[in-house]
């Protein structure tokens, strides 16, 4: 394999270490303990894995973790009432409602009900609008983590051609905005785009966030390009065991790329670490304090 493996697990641990140190400092100097409320509606197995991981990391960082588990048949009104309570609870600085929600609940209405100052997912239209217009707000965790992974290899992204596969509100679109803000030339690809291999081969930076296992092949990669694989696809082997693979055919791509993130162990851990970083930022802003310096601790 020629590509440098960008180790998201190691970078996430370094970021988590910085967040924990800043959190301890806040406690000591301000008596402030950041609190994150995670709301899970129903019992989707994957969501339960992610929510457990988020809660564990929150506690490890020295923050307060508030768990809210609601039954699958919870009405939209009851969920909105809980969110209203969390919005006004001074011990809660971040509110995350785990997606997907059960079909009878409108996610746009639920996300719109979260106080933008506590929207640590960065999904609220106010935060999406602030990002789109270059104003300070809360940035979605996965794209934020992807930018930190890119900085492990590129001190300056100016002028590079970035191709983003996917245009969702939670990954593709904010990802494109962040790359644009770093002066990349950005192409956003989606299901109606034509000649994906040709488009991908133009990329110095390729971010795959489509949810299609191994869609991106090795010959779609420009030699030396940096590949960030956001995809998390749970596939079942013939023997019945499940495994995670990304949107990129890792082995083929690694033989061509200059650097690549693995799945698992790449973007996923960064999403969680950035959630904690957003909670710390939100708590500082709510206390009228300057944003903390979240430069990840130096690597080993
Ligand atoms: N690691 C992490 O922390 C996270 C990982 N993920 C993973 O990232 C992936 C994307 O998630 P999410 O953004 O929510 O996905 P969505 O399903 O919301 O969006 C998928 C996007 O990919 C596009 N797309 C789908 N198929 C193709 C195709 N064949 N060619 C080109 N474009 C295509 C869609 O196009 P169109 O708009 O035209 O429909 C859409 O824009 C998933 O695998 C998800 O599991 C997501 C969040 C966090
Ligand atoms: N309100 C909301 N915010 C989210 O940020 C959100 C969400 N809902 N719904 C689901 C997606 C998905 N997501 C992941 C987080 C961590 C890993 C992660 O840590 N993955 C590990 C593997 C974990 C495993 O073993 O499954 C890895 O990639 O190394 C993956 C996916 C956040 N999401």
TrEMBL record:
Residues that coordinate or bind NADP(+): 166-168, 232
UniProt keyword annotations, A-Z: Amino-acid biosynthesis, Histidine biosynthesis, Hydrolase, Methionine biosynthesis, Multifunctional enzyme, NADP, One-carbon metabolism, Oxidoreductase, Plasmid, Purine biosynthesis
Pathway assignment: One-carbon metabolism; tetrahydrofolate interconversion
Location of the Tetrahydrofolate dehydrogenase/cyclohydrolase NAD(P)-binding domain: 140-286
Gene Ontology cellular-component terms listed: cytosol
Reactions catalysed, as given in the entry: (6R)-5,10-methenyltetrahydrofolate + H2O = (6R)-10-formyltetrahydrofolate + H(+); (6R)-5,10-methylene-5,6,7,8-tetrahydrofolate + NADP(+) = (6R)-5,10-methenyltetrahydrofolate + NADPH
EC number: 1.5.1.5, 3.5.4.9
Superkingdom: Bacteria
UniProt-listed CDD domains: NAD_bind_m-THF_DH_Cyclohyd
GO biological process: L-histidine biosynthetic process; methionine biosynthetic process; purine nucleotide biosynthetic process; tetrahydrofolate interconversion
UniProt xrefs under NCBIfam families: PRK10792.1, PRK14186.1, PRK14188.1
Protein family (similarity comment): Belongs to the tetrahydrofolate dehydrogenase/cyclohydrolase family.
Subunit structure: Homodimer.
HAMAP family, A to Z: THF_DHG_CYH
Name of protein: Bifunctional protein FolD
Organism of origin: Salipiger abyssi
Gene that this sequence comes from: folD
């Amino acid at each position: 394999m020629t590509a440098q493996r960008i180790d998201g697990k190691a970078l996430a641990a370094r970021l988590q270490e910085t967040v924990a140190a800043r959190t301890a400092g806040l406690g000591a100097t301000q008596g402030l303990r950041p609190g994150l409320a995670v709301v899970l509606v129903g019992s989707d197995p994957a969501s339960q894995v992610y929510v457990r991981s988020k809660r564990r990391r929150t506690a490890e960082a020295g923050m307060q973790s508030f768990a809210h588990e609601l039954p699958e048949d919870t009405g939209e009104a009851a969920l909105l009432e809980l969110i209203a309570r969390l919005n006004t609870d001074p011990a809660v600085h971040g509110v995350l409602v785990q997606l997907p929600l059960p079909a009878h609940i409108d996610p746009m209405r639920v996300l719109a009900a979260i106080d933008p100052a506590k929207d640590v997912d960065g999904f609220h239209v106010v935060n999406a609008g602030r990002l789109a217009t270059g104003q300070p707000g809360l940035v979605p965790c996965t794209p934020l983590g992807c930018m930190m992974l890119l900085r492990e290899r590129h001190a300056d992204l100016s002028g590079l051609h970035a191709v983003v596969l996917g245009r969702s509100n939670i990954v593709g679109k904010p990802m494109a905005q962040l790359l644009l803000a770093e002066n990349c030339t950005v192409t956003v690809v989606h299901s109606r785009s034509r000649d994906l291999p040709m488009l991908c081969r133009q990329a110095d930076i390729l971010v795959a966030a489509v949810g299609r296992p191994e869609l991106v092949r090795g010959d779609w990669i420009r030699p030396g390009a940096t590949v960030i694989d956001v995809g998390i696809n749970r596939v079942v082997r013939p023997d019945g065991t499940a495994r995670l693979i990304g949107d990129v055919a890792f082995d083929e791509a690694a033989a061509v790329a200059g650097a690549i993130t693995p799945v698992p162990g790449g973007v996923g851990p960064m999403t969680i670490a950035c959630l904690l970083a957003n909670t710390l930022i939100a708590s500082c802003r709510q206390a009228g304090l300057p944003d903390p310096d979240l430069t990840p601790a130096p690597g080993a």
